[in-house]
Write a structure and sequence with these properties.
By secondary structure, this protein is α/β, with parallel strands linked by helices. The protein is built from ten helices and 26 strands. Strands 3-2-1-7-19 form a five-stranded parallel β-sheet. A five-stranded parallel β-sheet has the order 9-16-10-11-12, with helices on one face. A five-stranded antiparallel β-sheet has the order 22-23-26-25-24. Helix 2 (67-72) links the parallel strand 2 (32-36) and strand 3 (75-79). Bound molecules: flavin-adenine dinucleotide. The site of flavin-adenine dinucleotide has 36 residues, from helix 1, strand 2, helix 8 and strand 22.
Length: 411
């Protein structure tokens, strides 16, 4: 067994870089190693399907810390290295080049990867997934030269790429197996808002479709075949059908893994001195009352701070109200709360839904606010989070009435 006083972080993206920052801010002065597969400085991914994809922002603006920050804070940042194995008994990780790194405490922020389509043609050139800056560059090149693309999956990534492509004048066909976009996440009432938004931007939306094949010629994708025999022609295909957490390392090391690496509210895994945070963590959430895995930016930003404190022996329970956002065309929204697919009783709207300036609230059968989504209305998400956190039934008429201040409703 090696003895090391190093704190080691595996996964050098938003969660990993935030944890490194928090460890230093919280006063950790020992050796700190941040290991990551990608060659890029740790960066935030949301711009990859928005401003960066549209050529409106430079990658530097997405870096979690500037290049010099790592040396200034004595963080041993090693990029382009993959951790191949974790040995919790020996308290060390092995890199793909054979190097071993011992740890006193280890944080796993290995994130997630796009789910691959298990159909013929999925490996053709011109079939794109979006997770990394390299992927975003490739899709940007497609948008620059394609006349039409097909987007498989009407989730957040698919819809954001669709918006970017439409803004650039590219024709887009969206292929989705459900009846509406984002149906599982938002439910029918609010999913319709996104269907209408994209229909208004002349997106060819096809719902309730099954895909059998990506077709190609000379090794390059040229369309998508549907189960009813229809062929949708496309110069390229973008696939956004969800992600899976990168748990291989943890599984092989015998850590408890179920829909991500299972942790308690203090982000401790089942192995001593091993923690997890960000997309990969299925953490117990005291407010929700069970384990949840949140695949969003705000979680990857804040949860590692709690993990860092926990690693330093502080008594923390990460219980922030989950939050995410999207920007598509001129629609910007923020969502605060947590609702299981279909796990709500009704939706109450406040404001102008057709004009896309409103707040939607998801309520349970007792009238408690489970989540709220502000669309093109700003500086209200803390009030919405307070309503979610209060856990008490609200007056629905008052909730729907924009003249009633939101902060008068949380008790
Ligand atoms: C295009 C795009 C747009 C998004 N837009 C939004 C948005 O608008 N709003 C929102 O709320 N969320 C958004 N998200 C989600 C958000 O970006 C993620 O929740 C966030 O990136 C998770 O951060 P993470 O650090 O936990 O994991 P990741 O970002 O997945 O990073 C994990 C890192 O670990 C590395 N790694 C994995 N295994 C190993 C290993 N064995 N050894 C070394 N390194 C390893 C990976 O290479 C990767 O760099 C978006 C995501 C994408 C891809």
């Amino acid at each position: 067994m090696t003895t090391s006083d190093a704190y080691v972080i595996v996964g050098a993206s938003l969660a990993g870089a935030r944890a490194a920052g928090a460890l230093r801010e919280e006063g950790f002065t020992g050796p700190l190693v941040l290991l990551g597969t990608e060659n890029e400085l740790p960066y935030e991914r949301p711009p990859l399907s928005k401003d960066y994809l549209m050529g409106k922002a430079e990658l530097e603006t997405a870096h979690v810390h500037p290049r010099e920050w790592y040396a200034e804070h004595d963080v041993d940042l090693r990029l382009g290295v993959t951790v191949a194995a974790l040995d919790p008994d020996a308290r060390e990780v092995s890199l793909d080049d054979g190097t071993r790194v011992g740890y006193a405490r280890l944080l796993l922020t290995t994130g997630s990867s796009p789910r691959r389509l298990p159909i013929p043609g999925a490996d053709l050139d011109g079939v794109h997934y979006l997770r990394t800056v390299t992927d975003s560059n490739a899709i940007r090149a497609v948008i620059d030269r394609a006349n039409r693309i097909a987007v498989i999956g009407a989730g957040w990534i698919g819809l954001e790429v669709t918006a970017a492509a439409r803004i650039a004048g590219v024709e887009v066909t969206v292929l989705e197996m459900a009846d509406l976009p984002l149906l599982r996440v938002l439910g029918r009432e609010v999913a319709q808002v996104f269907a209408d938004l994209h229909a208004e931007h002349d997106v060819d939306l096809r719902f309730g479709v099954a895909i059998t094949e990506i077709t190609g010629s000379d090794g390059k994708a040229d369309g998508v075949r549907l189960a009813d025999g229809t062929h949708v022609e496309a110069d390229a295909v973008v696939v956004g059908v969800g992600i899976t957490p990168n748990v291989e390392l943890a599984s092989a090391a015998g850590l408890r893994v179920e829909n991500g690496i299972v942790t308690d509210a203090g982000l401790r895994t089942s192995a001593p001195d091993v923690y997890a945070a960000g997309d990969v963590a299925n953490a117990f959430h005291p407010l929700v009352g069970r384990h949840i895995r949140v695949e969003h930016w705000a979680n990857a930003r804040h949860q590692p701070v709690a993990a860092a404190k926990s690693m330093l022996g502080q008594d923390v329970a990460y219980d922030r109200v989950p939050y995410f956002y999207t920007d598509q065309y001129d629609l910007g929204m923020e969502y605060s709360g947590y609702v299981e697919p279909g796990g709500y009783h009704e939706v109450v709207f406040r404001g102008d839904v057709p004009g896309r300036e409103f707040i939607a609230f998801w309520l349970d059968a007792e009238g408690r606010v489970l989540a709220g989504m502000n669309v093109n209305i700003w500086d209200v998400n803390e009030q919405i989070a307070a309503l979610v956190r209060s856990g008490t039934p609200v007056d629905k008429a008052a909730l729907a009435d924009p003249s009633v201040p939101l902060d008068s409703l949380a008790s």
